[in-house]
């Protein structure tokens, strides 16, 4: 993966505002990444300083291994989930 794409992804994730969420696919489309999976990889390797918790799967759910922490962080920003699913129609970020 090229460094320029890596930095674009980081920049896009950093701009998702508190109280909003985006999907991995949203971030990939904005950053010009070839795959939503690449976004997850970048965040897992180099996203600790980013609002990674604002990025969800296409169905509005967190990654299974992050679900409790991610929903806790989102709830603190006013993003409420129904069970483990965030309503994308309500909370999706539209830049």
From TrEMBL:
Recorded coiled-coil stretches: none
Domain of life, source organism: Bacteria
Gene Ontology molecular functions: methyltransferase activity
Listed Gene3D superfamilies: Winged helix-like DNA-binding domain superfamily/Winged helix DNA-binding domain (1.10.10.10)
Gene Ontology process terms (BP): methylation
UniProt keyword list: DNA damage, Methyltransferase, Transferase
Sequence ranges assigned to domain Methylated-DNA-[protein]-cysteine S-methyltransferase DNA binding in this UniProt record: 5-79
Cited PANTHER family: 6-O-METHYLGUANINE DNA METHYLTRANSFERASE (PTHR42942), ALKYLTRANSFERASE-LIKE PROTEIN 1 (PTHR42942:SF1)
Protein known as: DNA methyltransferase
